[in-house]
Amino acid sequence: MNTLATVLLSALPLAAGWAVHVWWLRGRLNTARRDPLTGLRTRDGFTRRATTLLKDPRAVVVLADVDKFKDINDRHGHAGGDALLKATADRLAHHVGRSGVAGRLGGDEFAAVLIDEHGTAGDLLAVLHGVLARPVDGHDPALHTTVSLGWVRAADFPADDLSGLLRRADEAMYAAKQARAGTRRAGLGWLFATVTGRRAGRTGARTSAPVVGVAA
After folding, report:
1. E strand segments, 80-213
2. Catalytic residue list
3. When comparing pLDDT for 71 and 216, which is higher?
4. b/e map of 19-58 (b: 16 or more CB within 10 Å)?
5. 105 burial class (0-12, 13-18, 19+ CB within 10 angstroms)?
6. For 126, how many CA atoms within 13 A lie in the half-sphere containing its CB?
7. Rounded to whole angstroms, how far apart are CA atoms 72 and 80?
8. Cβ count within 10 A of residue 59
9. What pLDDT is stored for residue 203 in this prediction?
10. Looking only at Cα atoms, what is the longest distance across the chain?
11. What does pTM read for this prediction?
12. What is the mean pLDDT of residues 184-202?
């Protein structure tokens, strides 16, 4: 056997070991970017995928917040609260579909980016609002609540990055929650003003700045 062949054969175990190590590291990284309760992407994983999706002019950014979640925990315990969060995550991910992405930002707050192929995001999110209010399958029928949704078309604010669009969607969501309106779209009027993402009434916010719209 010549010297080159000997060198190549001796290198095979090292190459195979390195490939396995890379595969293991990739798996650990993917696990770290998934929320252990809901299976959705965490903020970091969501941000990476969402930023890519925003290159599509049809992208829509959604922020979802569970209404009266503390009351759910008080009445049904943390196990009930966890079941509600898991059901919310599953239903959100189903409606976003494989072409979009859903993530859990923390607590009872979720975000999504979907690709609005037919210009019907408003109708889709109205349906989603009703689905999210259904009782959790396999649990006490009383285990349910509504989820307030705020959304914004990325094309309406071409200068905004993901952070800016989430802030607008957050303001629309807050308006929907305050008005018990279910869903609100950002970009068509005036809502609660923010400074660096703080809603009106919070420390560091002011109420005289134009922000997002109130139309559904």
Report:
1. 101-106, 109-115, 147-153, 183-185
2. 108
3. 71
4. eeeeeeeeeeeeeebebeebebbbeebbbebbeebbebeb
5. buried
6. 8
7. 7
8. 22
9. 36
10. 82
11. 0.75
12. 54
